[in-house]
Amino acid sequence: MPGWPEKRVQIGARAKRVDAPAKVAGAAKYSSDVQPEAWLYGMILRSKWPRAKVTRINLEKASQAPGIKAALAVREGERTVRYYGEELAAVAGTSKQACQDALRLIEVDATPLPFVVREDEAREESSPRVWDNAPNLARFKVVEKGDVDKAFSECPTVVEGFYTTPVALHNPMETHGNTVAWTDEGVTAWSSTQAIFGVRDALAGNLKVPQNQVRVICEYMGGGFGSKLTAGAESGIAARLSKAAKAPVKLMLTRFDEALAVGNRPSTFQKIRLGASADGKLQALELENYGTPGIGSGGVTEGASGDVGVPAPFIYRVPNSRVKQASVAVNAGSSRPFRAPSHPPASFGMESILDELAVKLKMDPLELRLKNDPSEVRRKEYQLGAERFGWKENYKAPGSSPGPVKTGVGCAGSTWWGGGGKGTQVEAQVNPDGSVEVRCGTQDLGTGTRTVITLVAAEMLGLKPEQILVRIGDTRFPPSGGSGGSTTAPSVSPAVYDACTKALDELQKQTGVADARGENWAGACKKLGVNPLVVTGQFQPGLSGGGVGGVQFAEVEVDTNTGFVKVKKITCVQDCGLVVSKLTCESQANGGIIMGIGYALYEERIMDRRSGVVLNPNFETYKLPTLADMPEIDLVLFEMPERGVIGIGEPVTIPTAAAIANAVANALGVRVNSLPITPARVLAALGKDKLSTT
Amino acid sequence: MKPFQYVTATSPGSAQELAGDQGRYLAGGIDLLGEMKEHIAEPKILVNIKSLPGLDKIEPGAKAWTIGANVTVAALESHEGLKKTFPALAQAAAEVGSQQIRNVATAGGNLAQHSRCWYYRHRDIRCLKKGGETCYARTGENKYHSLFTGNTCISPAVSNLAVALAAFEATVIIQRGNKHVPMTIPELYAKAWDNPTSHNSLEPGDLILKVEVPAQPRRSAYVQLSEKAAFDWALVSCAVSAQVEGNKLRLARVVLGAVANVPYQAQAANDFLEGKVLDDAVADKAADLILEKAQGHSHNAYKAPIARALIRQALMRLKG
Questions:
Q1: What is the pTM of this model?
Q2: Which end of chain B has fewer CB within 10 Å, C or N?
Q3: What ipTM does this complex have?
């Protein structure tokens, strides 16, 4: 069984990101920076109807427009479009303006059909159907354990609540898109993706080109958060435009497009009942939840990212539980996995009702968690976090903070798998001059994969990071899986370990140097002669772990006159196994917390029920937090090296919104049951959202 | 956007001539370019007015200060003398957009900017303000919309500067044909109150040259509340100004922003404050008077308590 070195020099160091200089200087090439010879712009025409029968698409005028080299319909023949923004046609041309002008020349004959965009309306049998052959509301799936009704009847304390979370948009800084060249030799796609091999296989399948003739490259990318795990419509469209125009086509989506057609986090509407014994032990739970994954439902696909169900009772154990969940289709873009799918809403619902229970039991909510949380790791983290956060000193009875600006505190826990696997392979090449190249067909979403690989390789070879060159993001390198589920670091690190261990063994065997590491390295490599040493490593079990626990504490200030919420402090204690790259690990945690703050207070896709459009397809009204909204973040990496490398990209964002919501409820003495917690909702919870005071 | 001609004007007269009926003036471009990209505005000609001489100055005067139309919002925010004399104006400027936006946005552009209503700004919605049949916001998503209107459109005026300038009873000087036409802030927006398709009272070709702010000593304050702490529109804003003699208010003005298609005032509230000594009860009474005719819609009644809180906050700052 392999194991990480006991004494580590590089692993766990606060090393700088290896690609920071390239990014800061603008030398790092993203998909939108790639400019192959004679490239064209590509652009998509989207449906202006939330639902319509499209009978004819006339491209004649568009294809003859100045600068236009190709125009195509996304699908042949009659079709039904099911949301505002669905792809209809596309053009490629010599300038952005030429494409924009041409799109306006495409004639689309369509018969508008009735549609529905709101979850509560869509679930009514009388609403227009998104899919003709199935009701919008899928059948509730029921999971039952124990004797729920009996257990409730025996519980001295029962609380009930209704909690809702919005559809949220991924909005990565780099929009979705790619530059694709399709020639007789094959297809090359510079794609902004979380899964280069996934995109390769999808493109090969869609275009009917052998996989060995499709190359996908993603050297750098600007975030995806789960929305770039699959080849989107823009990949196939760009390829077809490229073939038709006989030139590479760059098709990057706009911010407007991002709100419509490339995924989102499903909404949830959670009705929860929770019963406990007098000492606060959880005994019975009933949860009924529905939400929308957009058109990806209605009994057809059960939601593009799986169904919209949340894990219940989340991180707790309740001996008797009845959980009923269903998805409801609406005429809006499909959901996609979004940073810890289904976990942030699960955390918001369950941690909210738990605090309601604490209120009713007149118990400190932290104490209630320590009593009920089955995870020993989280219980330790709660104790450590409470100490640092000053929970004892800061926790007061709900609503008891004096004055109009009230302070409150709250906490919440999380879990996530985050383990490794997926058959990652890594190639290590040792050159006679002592330089090392490590190659892997993984990708760096901006999280620091290159740095992680560099540090592991440097550690295993006894070298300095600057002696290692890491090449990733190309399907010509040995395969690795998609970067989703917080699996990249725990999948790639063991394979790098294996490749470098084998390379060192082989180098020592070939050259007769007993220990080629460190200062002996150059001499040993010289003895290789003219041929570099190339070794392939595999993922090895035992070097990574999963199933993390994490906890967060939030302190907020709420102005009861204006409803404005200010997060003052977040304390995060995150179980993260063996930390490879401390700075990028901390960066992940900060990013997760920031995203959680956005989910708690600002972000919500707003649909218009009359026109069926997304009303806030921009950063002006789809509100994202800025630096001015940031609290003090106190971060503790709860390291357990014996567990191996664990991914933490997702767990760190799970409990933030729940902790903030609990802190707001603690400040106010009443609960805001819906995210995001806006001034309007705070004032409504206080009963102040009235025109007059009388 | 639709192709357009681009020319640079050297004088207000030439600017007007070049713009004609089909042109628009380009200063910071923050508002206009957004409308053009969404095909909400399709001017045939863009007249660059950034080079017009003398319009980029803040000039103190014994009777009135003059602020050129091309003075950037960032300059208003950071002008030391202005911060001292008209704190509400500097504070209103500081809350506009982001630093990057304030660096290029101009005083004239801020006053002349169009509605930010998300129905109006949507490329595929033809709402009442764009000459369509109905106001979608009235029965739709109206959490950012008005509590007061003189017509059917409920999109609010969102210029921060207008709210502060109204409190100072400033005058905007417009070049209309050969004439310089002075307009008070209420006059500058009166047409938007009456007419759903208007954003202000400017006519095609009208060019804002400068703003004159009476120099009489007043205390003033501007406060706004947004959903975010920075780089966000006001849900409600409030500017107040008054002379304070002894403890008593004279010539007090209370103006609300983002609650009406004009910077909103109530004569009754201003009259009520005359001669009053400020305390919570007086502030609340003023708030009641200004909000008396408020009309809520499905999602915006919460703006009323925010307005109340901001009126109190702003008035209390006058105590000094």
A1: 0.97
A2: C
A3: 0.97
